Amino acid sequence: xxxxxxxxxxxxxxxxxxxxxxxxxxxxxxxxxxxxxxxxxxxxxxxxxxxxxxxxxxxxxxxxxxxxxxxxxxxxxxxxxxxxxxxxxxxxxxxxxxxxxxxxxxxxxxxxxxxxxxxxxxxxxxxxxxxxxxxxxxxxxxxxxxxxxxxxxxxxxxxxxxxxxxxxxxxxxxxxxxxxxxxxxxxxxxxxxxxxxxxxxxxxxxxxxxxxxxxxxxxxxxxxxxxxxxxxxxxxxxxxxxxxxxxxxxxxxxxxxxxxxxxxxxxxxxxxxxxxxxxxxxxxxxxxxxxxxxxxxxxxxxxxxxxx
Length: 308
Fold this sequence. Notes:
The chain is mostly beta strands. It has two domains: about 45-165, Immunoglobulin-like (Sandwich); about 195-308, no CATH class. Helix content is about 5%, strand content about 45%. It contains three helices and 16 strands. Strands 1, 3, 4, 7, 8 and 9 form a six-stranded mixed beta sheet that branches. Strands 10-11-12-15-14-13 form a six-stranded antiparallel barrel. The protein has a three-stranded antiparallel beta sheet with strand order 2-6-5. The longest helix has 9 residues, at about 240-250. The chain is flat.
């Protein structure tokens, strides 16, 4: 091996000097930008899907187990109303027995009422037979020789859960009497109904009333004091199908019971018996679905102090 040493013709020149550094701004930590919640239903009308619940372990907890009513009107005895239950777009049952709830093949009442036909679905019975999922009721009608089909809104049947039920309100009603403008005469039927809507209910405001007399010493003395409450229901967007049921039927019921499912509510409000007092329709800027504020008052005088 031959090794040859060559001279460095450009040696490094050592000079005096100072080393320094310049402080610059640090790069910011990457932050994921906030993406606002977006729902197409905020801009167009979406099909309303009602949440309904069942709890097979606690079937007697009424607030965990829902029911839904259906009522149809025949004109003559030969008219037919055939109700069917569908699960995930597949027919699972004919609603003509009490297997899935309570079947009303006819009613006792006037000549018109005996031709009514109805069904009260018990969703706990339904889940026991067919499980959870998205249900729909379809009805084949033949009225005065004219065939037609009715398809209900969808019902999303879930195992009861406080989180899933959050910000919903269940409104139960019992109807008697005749609502002019409604196709049904509820006189004597004691017809029960229930609907669950996206809303919050509660925030009771006490209303104080007093009855006094003035004694011979001009002192005001108590005869009777009463404390009642105002309640407030604030809905989210509701389709006309639900508005028609809520505003023009259930708000006119003989009895209204409201259960709130807001996990942040100041207390637990279950089956609060109320009467409507005031209704406000809020602007939705042209959206076909509507928002409502409804004020209620107690239907009973719970808090009364008497001295005589």
